[in-house]
């Protein structure tokens, strides 16, 4: 299962098992990437893990298809909604 095929990552409804697999894959990939950054730049491993996984969380929070910050900025207003009252 890859990141692009994971229903929970792509915004479709998913079972708890597929969500757990997707979260595990993202966590493992982030941990491996952070250990690589730690080794390459001679940094503390624990701090690198925290920074990289926090950055991944912030990225997924911003790009979430339903509730992310980008989705809220791009979302169009409902044309059937009543117009706000004027002054």
Summarize the structure.
It is built from four helices and no strands. It is an all-alpha fold. The protein has one domain.
Please give the domain count: 1
Helical stretch tally: 4
Radius of gyration (CA) equals 18 Å
Broad structural category: mainly alpha
Helix content: 55-70%
Tell me the series of helices and strands, N- to C-terminal.
HHHH
Largest sheet: none
Low-confidence stretches: none
- What overall geometry do the principal axes of the alpha carbons give? elongated
Strand content: under 5%
Task: Give the rounded overall mean pLDDT.
Answer: 82
Task: Give the N-to-C terminal Cα separation.
Answer: 55 Å
**Count of extended strands:** 0
Transmembrane segments: 20-37, 43-64
Family: Belongs to the ABC-3 integral membrane protein family.
Membrane topology: Multi-pass membrane protein
Pfam family, one: ABC-3
Task: Describe the 3D structure.
By secondary structure, the chain is an all-alpha fold. It has one domain. The protein has helices spanning 7-10, 16-41, 45-63, 69-74. Helix 2 crosses helix 3 (45-63). The chain is elongated and about 60 Å long. The model has no long low-confidence stretch (mean pLDDT 82).
């Amino acid at each position: 299962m890859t990141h692009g095929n994971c229903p929970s990552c792509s915004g479709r409804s998913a079972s708890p098992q597929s969500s757990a697999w997707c979260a595990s894959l993202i966590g493992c990939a982030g941990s491996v990437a952070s250990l690589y950054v730690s080794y390459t730049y001679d940094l503390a491993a624990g701090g690198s893990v925290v920074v990289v996984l926090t950055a991944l969380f912030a990225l997924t929070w911003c790009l979430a298809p339903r509730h992310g910050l980008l989705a809220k900025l791009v979302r169009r207003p409902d044309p059937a909604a009543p117009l706000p009252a004027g002054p």
